[in-house]
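Lab manual, section 2.4: Encoding a predicted structure.

Procedure: take the sequence of the chain (125 residues), apply the prediction step described in section 2.3, and record the output as structure tokens. A sample record is shown.
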Amino acid sequence: MEGATGVALFGFALKAPAGAFFNLDALWREVEGLSSPGPAPALNAVTLQPSADARAVGFAETRRNVIAGVAALFLAGIAISGYAKGFGIILFGLAIAAFFWVRALFDNSEAMRRYKAAFHNAEAK
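Recorded output:
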């Protein structure tokens, strides 16, 4: 892998003289002779919680999608049920339009944009 990528993965290279065989026993004795680096340091797990404003923006986005979906499903259900008679295609088109209209009615894209920018900034750092 080191030869293929050009990246030194282990920080050392074993070189044997031409015609010599690799002696695993000798290498293993050297490994066993190394001293222990000691226990691993304790790492504090960082748990992050969204702010109240971020939770409110997320809830508003979820609510926006649920209301739009319910409105669209209601109109599509009427269109598919047969109660609309010849207007089923029109109601189905209205269901699609209602989905996007309700989402536009409850638009919170500016707040979402603000949090997405903060997320991408944090991710870049």
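Check your result against the sample. The two ends are 30 Å apart (CA to CA).
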